[in-house]
Amino acid sequence: MESVFDIIAEPNRRAILSLLVSSQQSVGEIERRLGMPQPTVSKHLRVLREAGFVESMVDAQRRLYRLKPEPFQEVDAWLEQFRRFWSGHVDALERHLDRMDQSMNRATSTKSKTGRRRRGPNRERDIGETK
C-alpha cells in the first residue's frame, strides 16, 4: 500500500483535496472545476478513498466526496518534529509585523496631530506638496 506521502505527492490528487477542503463535491463538479477528464477524476478519487483521505455518499443520482480527517492528522503528527524549524521564523515575523503596526499607528497619530505626515529624506512628497 502507498504511504500517505506517496498519495499526496501526485499533483492531481492534491488539487482534488484542495477542492474538497471547502465543501463536498461530486465527480462532475471536480471534473469541471479542475478541467480533468471524468476517468482521471474517478481514478484519483478511488486512490484517495482507498487510502482513507475521502469518503463518499450517494445523493440521488450523484456520489458526493468529502475529506476525512484521519490521514491529515497522520501528516500533522509527522510534521510536528519539524515545526521547531519554522516556528521561530513565524514568531519573528509576527514580532516584526507587530512593530510595523505600532510604527504605523505612531505615524498616523503624528499625522493627525500636525496635519502632515512625517517624512524621512528619501520619501516622496504628497501630491501637490511643495518643498
- Just give the CATH class of the largest domain: Mainly Alpha
Structural class estimated from helices and strands: mainly alpha
Strand order of the largest sheet: 1-3-2
Question: What is the overall silhouette?
Answer: elongated
Catalogue the unreliable spans: none
Mean pLDDT: 83
Largest sheet: 3 strands, antiparallel
Beta-strand residue percentage: 5-15%
* CATH third-level topology of the largest domain: Arc Repressor Mutant, subunit A
Number of helices: 6
Note the topology:
Elements: H1 4-9, H2 11-22, E1 25-26, H3 27-34, H4 38-50, E2 54-59, E3 62-67, H5 70-79, H6 83-114
Antiparallel strand pairs: 1-3, 2-3
Helix pairs in contact: 3-4
Explained architecture:
This protein is mostly helical and 131 residues long. Helices cover 62% and strands 11% of the residues. A hairpin with a 2-residue loop joins strand 2 and strand 3 (62-67). Helix 3 crosses helix 4 (38-50). The chain is elongated. 10% of the residues are buried.
Short description:
With 131 residues, the protein is mostly helical. The protein has six helices and three strands.
List its salient traits.
131 residues; mainly alpha; Arc Repressor Mutant, subunit A; three-stranded antiparallel β-sheet
